[in-house]
From TrEMBL:
It comes from the Bacteria. The lineage of its organism: Bacteria, Bacillati, Actinomycetota, Actinomycetes, Kitasatosporales. Residues 1-93 form the HTH arsR-type domain. SUPFAM superfamilies: Winged helix' DNA-binding domain (SSF46785). This is Helix-turn-helix domain-containing protein. It holds the Pfam family HTH_20. It comes from Streptomyces poriferorum.
């Protein structure tokens, strides 16, 4: 998973439904061959599957198997895999935010005015409270995510796929005498 194009392909197939490597290449502005290679790698590990022949019957279409999976990045200090993937996901999300902020078309300005680009806050939480807040955030988004998984024919005018990204990053300990480590008691 530690390749940005693989994440882009998963996002595209999740949002748009089944697509061929050629279609993915056009949308993502990368070569069809590169998309084909990465789609086969994703299929090898069960992240995508063959959706049958494409519209012209010469290419296969790919899809995300249902039900949709939530990607969890295991925190494992013994390997570089988890932190490397975390870094790629964060860089990718940050770039998507910057790309959105840089767009000045009428649609993006309208969305910025109504939905805003971000909400930022600093809150005093324990690790357990942070976990609870994360679960509440996921529960709040759940009905909209479920609607996304339905057929796009049900889409109402003005609806678009919207990327949400939550990151909880504990600040360094500011109080004197606080080492930043939690007590084990």
């Amino acid at each position: 998973m530690a390749h940005p194009l693989r994440l882009d392909l998963l996002e595209l197939l999740t949002a748009a439904g089944p697509a061929t490597a050629a279609h993915c290449g056009r949308v993502l502005e990368v070569s069809q061959a590169s998309c084909s290679f990465h789609l086969r790698q994703l299929a090898k590990y069960g992240f995508v599957e063959d959706a049958g022949p494409g519209r012209d019957r010469r290419e296969r279409a790919w899809q995300v198997p249902g039900p949709r999976r939530e990607m969890r990045i295991a925190v494992d200090d013994s390997s570089d895999g988890g932190p490397a993937l975390e870094r790629i996901v964060v860089e990718r999300e940050a770039q998507a935010i910057l790309d959105h902020v840089g767009r000045r078309d009428a649609g993006s300005v309208n969305w910025r005015q109504k939905a805003g680009v971000m909400v930022t806050a600093v809150a005093l939480l324990s690790a357990d409270e942070a976990a609870e807040l994360r679960e509440q955030w996921k529960a709040l988004l759940a009905p909209y995510v479920a609607r996304t998984e339905k057929d796009s024919a049900d889409r109402l005018p003005g609806q678009r796929h919207v990327r949400y990204f939550m990151a909880a990053t504990p600040l360094p300990a500011f109080e004197s005498g606080d080492s930043g480590h939690e007590s084990e008691h």
